[in-house]
Amino acid sequence: MILFSDRYLIAVNKPPGFTVHDAPGNSVSVMRLLREQQGLTDLTPIHRLDKDASGVLLLAKNKSTASDMQRKWGDVEKTYVALCENAPFNDAGTIDAPILEHQTGKPARLDSAVKYFKKQNPRVPMPPLPAPKTSGVHPAGRASQTRYRVLERFKTASGIYSLLEVTPLQGRMHHIRVHLKHLGCPLALDPLYGRAESSFQTLTRLPLHAARLVFPYQNKKMTIDAPLPEDIASTLNAIRLSGNDPVIQPS
Q1: Theoretical Cys-Cys bridge with 99: which of 43, 49, 129, 144, CB 3.0 to 4.6 Å?
Q2: How far apart are CA 5 and CA 215, in angstroms?
Q3: pLDDT tens figures, 167-176
Q4: Residue range 200-250, pLDDT digits in tens
């Protein structure tokens, strides 16, 4: 689980199904595990991953390191691997669409965005807002971009799928999931933005994996990689071994 550790930082390969912070009930969090197994009691996550996503998660071992890393977070490059329904027409590109976040814990952010949009566009009808605890592409949202590259394309009995490498350039709530839906290629399993159930027995959670994190640290560039988890790897192997013809590349 631990990918890197020194006096100031620890990076883990977060398993799917784990929250980052402690949550009510019996859910297991990364913070709790690190406290119990490593004796680390003063951790601060530098960023977040969705509960059902997996991959590189970086945490600071003290508050000053957390503040320093968060100030530099604009220089960080996050690379994810995503198994998606459908396949983009182009081999690579950038999804450029504003994202509006409906964070129930930060209602002022949504209110401010809506008021600003109405002030700037007094004659334009306000499109429907995202449901609570979701985000959506919306003209009142903040500028958001995601770079993508097609790694593989598949044709299966249940439809066309693609394996994408994606890099969000900001960090909006559900950023990648919202942009993939906007592209017409939602995650192969995503109860909020795509299918509620997977077509593959080996896939029971979001097929989204934080594969690489590159960030400035101690006057150099640090790269941390997380291997693909077993459930996504097994799903991909089953697809590749199914004998189906690959999707023809558009000309």
Answers
A1: 144
A2: 15
A3: 999 999 999 9
A4: 989 999 999 999 999 999 989 999 999 999 999 999 998 888 755 555 444
CB atoms within 10 A of CB 165: 16
Helices (H) and strands (E) in the chain, counts: 5, 12
Q: Are strands 54-60 and 208-217 parallel, antiparallel or unpaired?
A: parallel
Q: Give the pair of three-digit tokens for residue 217.
A: 């640290």
- Looking only at the bridges linking them, the beta strands covering 135-137 and 2-5 are unpaired
**Residues annotated catalytic, as ranges:** 50
Task: Indicate the Cα dihedral angle 105, 108, 109, 114, nearest 10°.
Answer: 130
Note the pLDDT of residue 243. 55
Residue with tokens 């509620």: 196
Alpha-carbon distance of 109 to 9, in angstroms, equals 30
| Top-level class of domain 2-97+144-240 | alpha beta
Token pair belonging to 72: 């530099």
Q: Which two tokens stand for residue 78?
A: 């996050």
Q: How far does CA 246 lie from the centroid of its chain?
A: 27
- Taking alpha carbons only, the member of 34, 7, 30 closest to residue 17 is 30
Cβ count near 152 (within 10 Å):
15
> Distance between CA atoms of 58 and 56, rounded to whole angstroms?
7
Question: What are the structural domain ranges in the chain?
Answer: 2-97+144-240
The ranges of the chain with pLDDT < 70 are: 24-27, 243-251
What does the block give as tokens for 166?
Answer: 């994606």
* Cα–Cα distance for residue pair 8/51, rounded to 1 Å: 25
Give the ranges where 72-220 is alpha helix by DSSP (H).
107-120, 175-183
Would you say 132 and 124 are in contact if contact means Cβ atoms under 8 Å apart?
no
